[in-house]
Structures are given as structure tokens and as C-alpha cells.
Amphi-Trp domain-containing protein
Amino acid sequence: MPEEQLFKTAGSRTRAEIAERLVAAAEAIEAGTVHLEGPETQREVTIPENPAFEVELERLTDSETGEQRYELEYEIRWTV
């Protein structure tokens, strides 16, 4: 099944700004409807009562520079 990206936003934020956005997202998830808004796109999605939830921490190392990058991802999945 091909993947279709419906929304994406990215950019640097302070830890406090990220925490504020995550708290707002948690409240929206608990309420059952999440509104996503970016510079060019808006989406609204209904979260089912019992979706799958995954937390993943990755460390990636650049093969040329040896520089390490970390990614912390929270993922909610469901089928319709």
C-alpha cells in the first residue's frame, strides 16, 4: 500500500515550545479530535478510542563525519 503524506511540519523549537505543543496535542487526543495546522495545510483527524501507540528512540551516525543524531518519535496508528 503506497504511503500518502497528508500533513508535515518541521522546524527548530525550544524544549518549552515543544512541551507546550505536546501538551496541547495530548489534550486534543484525549478529546478525540486533533487539528493540525501549518503554513500551507490544515487537517483535522478523529482519533479512535483504542489506537496503537509506539515510542521510538533512534541514534543515527553519519558515516563520513561520525556525528550522531537522535530521533525521538511518538506514533499513534489505527485502521479504518
Remarks:
- The mean pLDDT is 95.
- Residues 15-77 form one domain.
